[in-house]
Amino acid sequence: MPAEANRDKAAKTEADAPRTTPASPLTERQEARRRRILRASAQLAVRGGFDAVQMREVAESSQVALGTLYRYFPSKIHLLVAMMQDQLERLHGTLRRKPPTGETAAERTAETLMRAFRALQREPHLAEAMVRALTFADRSVSPEVDQVSRQTTAIILDAVGLTGPTPDQLAAVRVIEHTWHATLIAWLSGRASLDQVKTDIETVCRLMDLTAPKETDTP
Amino acid sequence: MPAEANRDKAAKTEADAPRTTPASPLTERQEARRRRILRASAQLAVRGGFDAVQMREVAESSQVALGTLYRYFPSKIHLLVAMMQDQLERLHGTLRRKPPTGETAAERTAETLMRAFRALQREPHLAEAMVRALTFADRSVSPEVDQVSRQTTAIILDAVGLTGPTPDQLAAVRVIEHTWHATLIAWLSGRASLDQVKTDIETVCRLMDLTAPKETDTP
DNA sequence: CGCCGACCTAGAACAAGTTTCAGAGTTGAT
DNA sequence: ATCAACTCTGAAACTTGTTCTAGGTCGGCG
């Protein structure tokens, strides 16, 4: 069934390659290829982490030529960051279905992050691959990394229960995110224990007062 | 003057290669080589950042064979992390000579970090090289990365003016460090403005209350 | 019907980090 | 002075990410 042609035409008029951003609509077949690639990458990552995701192997596993792989994901980093976007979306969905139950904002945030952390713990190699990619990303991956960052912010804001955060609250959320990332990295490279992760996360959630604006008054 | 031999012997008895850790004392010549290598790396890094530090070029610039370079620094990451250790020591020295002047611990900490930040700003490529290496480091570099982390902690504790920090205070310092790192990364990859860096650093320093223990009482 | 253009494939080629190896060079001990 | 045990050198080889080239496939259109 030639459902592909007209869309290919559309893609052509706008850009040369399918982007990871929502910009260009992909053919069904192309969507399928993209999913195959991401799935193959995830499988490899689960087994051996960042180093095990080798572009030639990804191409072979997903039954795609190397050149095609690079057309879909312009670098290994792009590929792994896209994988992270995938996983984050899934996580956000799960969290929406089963929101955290803590009393205070700090408790809910810590609970959310620890839940995410336990999910990552289950596949540490996968986590390592994604996080390494994320932190190694240079300017050419900024848009994608930014998207990941926004998604993380959204997850935390959901946990807190804020819809219209003040700039101060946004800054606090950023600090929490930073701690989350850095702790994750320290844990993945064996420099922090599980306890330390837990402590740090709880510390930052407790101390970043998210319930009220800091500078302005709230009568 | 053959002051080299006995020390080489000493080195041999203990390990195969000179480590970056204080473990094995190096010959003068070896010290000189090591410094040449670090200097050459820094020069290359200043020019073009992480990518410009190419092992072949470093070897050539420092007049050392490639194999020798790898004997001193088992990987590019090790090399760049060692560069960071160097710079941090220098910074710590400077800070000791001219300590921050703020009234509160939070102010002094923020001042210290912003001063470090401005130093990095002067050589953004150098900063990029070091930070990329630091965050990309895997387990094999743990000891060195850990050393960097300890040095950073020491600098912050100096700024705060604490000598015997409580576990809670150490956790708070870790959160500050995490924020510092993550902000730096975001800035280097163009995802955060100078203002945002400043805001985040000040936010975390302000909110991480370092003046008194959190759990235990202070009569 | 047969050609066009976009996409895809296979595979070579290139770049940079890393490893390897044979042959010097050094140095302390005998 | 010679030896043994190192370290250093120079160059090639190997690995993996990335790019390039030449040709193949497919759907729509003249």
TrEMBL record, chains A, B:
GO molecular function: DNA-binding transcription factor activity; transcription cis-regulatory region binding
PANTHER family per record: HTH-TYPE TRANSCRIPTIONAL REGULATOR RUTR, HTH-TYPE TRANSCRIPTIONAL REPRESSOR KSTR
Basic and acidic residues biased stretches: 1-17
Xref: Gene3D superfamilies: Tetracycline Repressor, domain 2
Keywords: DNA-binding
Location of the HTH tetR-type domain: 31-91
Pfam families attached to this UniProt entry: TetR_C_20 (PF17925), TetR_N (PF00440)
DNA-binding region extent: 54-73
Name of the protein this chain belongs to: AcrR family transcriptional regulator
Region Disordered: start-end pairs: 1-31
Domain of life: Bacteria
